[in-house]
Every structure is written in structure tokens, then in C-alpha cells.
Task: inverse folding
């Protein structure tokens, strides 16, 4: 896996008290028992780590981030657009 | 137990710096949420809110007094001046001691705090202004209202985030009803549009990017507002004896704690607070013709509040009444919200007008009640409730009845 993917997995594992080994691209955030405040904390940690801004709105009634893979893809895209890998 | 009536109103809000201006803006559903100018928003992602325009504190406060007043206190004093003049009361002697002053605020002197931190951490200055603490403390607004008007009875600030002023007014209602005092000057204030605070709100990811559209499909969240409102409460006996104008009667107050989540609302906690307000006010669900909703415009609140209304009032009653969110007009004034919204509720009853929910675009299938979209309607309101459901699951609901004599 890429270093970005690995870093994102580290952040998700830390913030959600989920075993790192349980994380796969298609793992659903809801199945990992990641709640709304956890998502916001993960976004914040990702922004700090990669120096990017993630335009996430918790009111979005169509969830952008359903799986771990969605988060990784969004971060990679934002890095490519504006930031730098840490 | 005394009956408690409202005999004075005062507002200082983005929607108006007087009660007539405020009420007209709310009635017309004219949202004052727009680009912020009182702070530099270039470093912010959320650049909109409801700010008070054309307010020059130097025109209203002598320099010595102004030096002690954070903006949140300034707004409270402006609103209190209107309310007390409206009620036609001068506080002297024993009457002053028999008057309570309870002013709610969520975070108090944020501008003072922000400026002080900037001096220390950004400018590296050695000290801050000696009035920093007296300005930022949460009770400053209450103290200044007491000092301005000579109020000498039970007085303190009340804090419960978005429910602060509803809790304050509810406690004041208790004090007058029980006879502890015969008069109360009560309400709430918030002036937290400062850079640091806005960054904090952005970080929670619940702020609207377009505008605040409560109960609409595709709503993107809440918008911050600043403002204060103060009301005067008296025993009915006293109000009648001195020939006061009576706007309405506060007949019930309900409270509850969700004990669930620090930001997400709980349908059962909200329902319990409404049920408690009705029970306290000896009202049946079908006595209620209007609900002034908490209605922040977040995905979570609006759905939860709709479900809670159905639980507390029953489907039949919930589907008959009108619900609207004034936050669509003047944003979420946090600690000032409950007081501003009580003023809306009171005037709605008086004028037989159901104020609209502004910025309404498309119905959300999960929000399926009558939200009076965009245009006010006339309608008899025998009784109404005003809801506040705060972060941290602290809920407060006031029940207000029409008073005809």
C-alpha cells in the first residue's frame, strides 16, 4: 500500500479504537463503529498530517465517506490537487 | 403560585435593533444571513453569518462604561434598556430587591478572549488589559444589566450553550411564580463572531455553506448569529395593579437532559422536555397551535426535532399545528437564541401571525410537518411552545399562552 494509504489507516485506527489489522479498503466506517464525532476527528487529523483542506460537511445527506477506501481516495485526490505528502 | 406575564420586550439582533424592526423582519421571512464584515474572513471557509449592522457602541455608552463592556454585554444592555422602558418600570427601594436578573450566555466575552490571546501569542506582548477578566466572564452581561438599572434581587448568568436563555427565562419564571420575587428581567446574549470562535465552529463541520435552510431537503447546516433579547416578567397581580401592557403569559417550563451524546440530539430527551413544559403549563397537545422550533438547519436536529414533536404531541396534534424556525432569519444566536425566539413566539401570539421558516426550498421527506415555508400566515394561537435543544443534550422548552385579560 502507498504511504498515504498507510498513514490514513494509522489515523483511522488511532481515532476509532479499531484494530489496525481490521482495516481494509472496503471496510465500512459504520461497521467499524466510527461515530460522527470520530469522523470529524479523523478529518482533522488527516488535514493536519497532509496539510490539506477536506471540504467535509456533516450535514451531507449523501455520505461521501462510506468505506475506508473512500477516505483514502479523497485524501489522495486532495493531495494531488493542493497539498504535499507528509 | 402566581401567574406570570410578560410586560416588556427588548431585542438587539441582526434582524433588528428594536422590537418593531425585528418583528417585521421575522414576519416577512427576510433572512439577514449573509457575508460577514465585522471580522476578516479570508482565513475562514465559512464566511457567512448574521451580524448586527450599523452599531456604533460609542454612541450608546460613555467611554468609562464602554471600557468594561465586551460586545456580548453591550448587546444585553441595549436590549435591557428597551425592555425596561417598554415595561415602564424604575427599580427603587424594596422593588429593586424583589427583582431578579437572569441572563443566559453560552460563551460570554469571546471577543475579549480572542483579542487577549492574540496579544499574548501572536504579538508576544507582556500583558493584557486589566479589564480582560471582568469583560470576558460569563456573568458580565448580567452584572452590567443590574448595574445599569439598579436591580438588586437574585441575579446570575445561566449557561447551557444553545439553551442558555431559555433556561434563564425558565428559572426567572419559576422565581416569579413561586413568589421569591415579583419581577424578573431576563433573557440572553451572544456575540461570538470572532476569528478563533469561527474556526472552532468550522471544525465541527456543521456550518452551512449556502445559508441556513431549516427542514429543507439538502440543507447544509447552521449559520451563526449574534444578538440579545431581554423580557420583563411580573406577577399578573402586580402587572394589572399598575396597568401594565401584557404581551402574553408564560404558563409552563420543561427541562431535560439527553445523557447521550455531546453534540447529537436525542429524540427522547427533546420529547421529554416538551412533555414537561405542557404538563407544567397544564396544556394538552391539541391546545398548542404553534411551535417555535430549535430548528438549527442541521441534518441531525431538524429530523430529530420533527420526530420528537410527534412523540411529545402525538401525530394528530403535531400534524395540525404550525412549526417554524426563526434561525432561518437571524441565524443561531446560541446563548441569545432562546430569548430572541421567545420574543418571536410572544408577538406571534399577540398578532395572530404564524412566522415563516425562511430559505425553504424543497421538503425533506423526513421532515413532514407544516413549517410555514417562506411566507407568514395569519392564525389564531391559543398557546405555543418555544424549543431549545443544546449541544451536550440540555433541553429547555417554554410554554406561552395568549392573554386576553
Result:
Amino acid at each position: 500500500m502507498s504511504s498515504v494509504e498507510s498513514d490514513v489507516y494509522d489515523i483511522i485506527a488511532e481515532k476509532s479504537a479499531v484494530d489496525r489489522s481490521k482495516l481494509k479498503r472496503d471496510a465500512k466506517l459504520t461497521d467499524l463503529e466510527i461515530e460522527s464525532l470520530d469522523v470529524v476527528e479523523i478529518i482533522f487529523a488527516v488535514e493536519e498530517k497532509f496539510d490539506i483542506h477536506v471540504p467535509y460537511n456533516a450535514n451531507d445527506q449523501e455520505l461521501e465517506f462510506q468505506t475506508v477506501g473512500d477516505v483514502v481516495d479523497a485524501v489522495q485526490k486532495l493531495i494531488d490537487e493542493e497539498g504535499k505528502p507528509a | 403560585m402566581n401567574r406570570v406575564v410578560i410586560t416588556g420586550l427588548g431585542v438587539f439582533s441582526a434582524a433588528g435593533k428594536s422590537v418593531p424592526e425585528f418583528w417585521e423582519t421575522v414576519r416577512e421571512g427576510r433572512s439577514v444571513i449573509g457575508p460577514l464584515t465585522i471580522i476578516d474572513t479570508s482565513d475562514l471557509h465559512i464566511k457567512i453569518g448574521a451580524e448586527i449592522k450599523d452599531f456604533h457602541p460609542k454612541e450608546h455608552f460613555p467611554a468609562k462604561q464602554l471600557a468594561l463592556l465586551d460586545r456580548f454585554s453591550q448587546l444585553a444592555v441595549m436590549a435591557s434598556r428597551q425592555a425596561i422602558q417598554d415595561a415602564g418600570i424604575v427599580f427603587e427601594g424594596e422593588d429593586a430587591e424583589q427583582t431578579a436578573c437572569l441572563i443566559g450566555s453560552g460563551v460570554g466575552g469571546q471577543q475579549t478572549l480572542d483579542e487577549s490571546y492574540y496579544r499574548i501569542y501572536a504579538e508576544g506582548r507582556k500583558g493584557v488589559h486589566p479589564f480582560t477578566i471582568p469583560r470576558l466572564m460569563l456573568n458580565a452581561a448580567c452584572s452590567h444589566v443590574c448595574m445599569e438599572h439598579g436591580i438588586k434581587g437574585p441575579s446570575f448568568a445561566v449557561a447551557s450553550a444553545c439553551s442558555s436563555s431559555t433556561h434563564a427565562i425558565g428559572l426567572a419564571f419559576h422565581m416569579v411564580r413561586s413568589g421569591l420575587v415579583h419581577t424578573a428581567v431576563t433573557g440572553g446574549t451572544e456575540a461570538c463572531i470572532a476569528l478563533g470562535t469561527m474556526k472552532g465552529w468550522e471544525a465541527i463541520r456543521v456550518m452551512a455553506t449556502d445559508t441556513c435552510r431549516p427542514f429543507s431537503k439538502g440543507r447544509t447546516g447552521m449559520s451563526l448569529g449574534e444578538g440579545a433579547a431581554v423580557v420583563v416578567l411580573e406577577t399578573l397581580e402586580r402587572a394589572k395593579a399598575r396597568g401594565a401592557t401584557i404581551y402574553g403569559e408564560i404558563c409552563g417550563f420543561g427541562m431535560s437532559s439527553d445523557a447521550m451524546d455531546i453534540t447529537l440530539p436525542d429524540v427522547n430527551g427533546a420529547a421529554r422536555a416538551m412533555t414537561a413544559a405542557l404538563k407544567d403549563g397544564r396544556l394538552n397537545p391539541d391546545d398548542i397551535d404553534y411551535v417555535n422550533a430549535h430548528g438549527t438547519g442541521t441534518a441531525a436536529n431538524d429530523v430529530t426535532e420533527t420526530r420528537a414533536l410527534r412523540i411529545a404531541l402525538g401525530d394528530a396534534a403535531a400534524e395540525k399545528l404550525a412549526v417554524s424556525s426563526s434561525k432561518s432569519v437571524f441565524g443561531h444566536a446560541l446563548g441569545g437564541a432562546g430569548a430572541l425566539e421567545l420574543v418571536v413566539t410572544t408577538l406571534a401570539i399577540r398578532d395572530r401571525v404564524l412566522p415563516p421558516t425562511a430559505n425553504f426550498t424543497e421538503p425533506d421527506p423526513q421532515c413532514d410537518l407544516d413549517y410555514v415555508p417562506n411566507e407568514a400566515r395569519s392564525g389564531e394561537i391559543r398557546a405555543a411552545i418555544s424549543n431549545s435543544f443544546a449541544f451536550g443534550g440540555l433541553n429547555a422548552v417554554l410554554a406561552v399562552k395568549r392573554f386576553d385579560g
Remarks:
- The interface with chain B takes residues 36-37, 40, 43-44, 53, 55-61 of chain A (CB under 8 Å).
- The CA atoms of residues 17 and 34 of chain A lie 9 Å apart.
- Chain A has one domain: 3-81.
